[in-house]
Amino acid sequence: xxxxxxxxxxxxxxxxxxxxxxxxxxxxxxxxxxxxxxxxxxxxxxxxxxxxxxxxxxxxxxxxxxxxxxxxxxxxxxxxxxxxxxxxxxxxxxxxxxxxxxxxxxxxxxxxxxxxxxxxxxxxxxxxxxxxx
Length: 133
What we know:
Elements lengths: L6 H40 L14 H6 L2 H13 L1 E2 L1 H8 L3 H14 L2 E6 L2 E6 L7
Antiparallel strand pairs: 1-3, 2-3
Helix pairs in contact: 3-4, 3-5, 4-5
């Protein structure tokens, strides 16, 4: 044979070149996604999470993003009722009262929510100037 490459070698080189191009394209897309995610997080960190009935909440978007999804849903629902019982929060989230009670107590232990007893009922509200853990 001459100095020309054989057909299988040429096909393999072309395939490798296509794969390399595809990886390069994927890398570019991923870099763009990371950049956009950072922009979104920066914007969320700048905006404060407002709670109905109060001027500004001590729970800003950056703090909310650190919560696991299930606790974030609970604390956002609590912010809508301001001062509420587990069953009221459960009505908003659509989850069982017992589940919400557990999540609210977890938020109390974390220092983001305070718990108050009024007669025979337990009420929860978002802690003013929450402690960070």
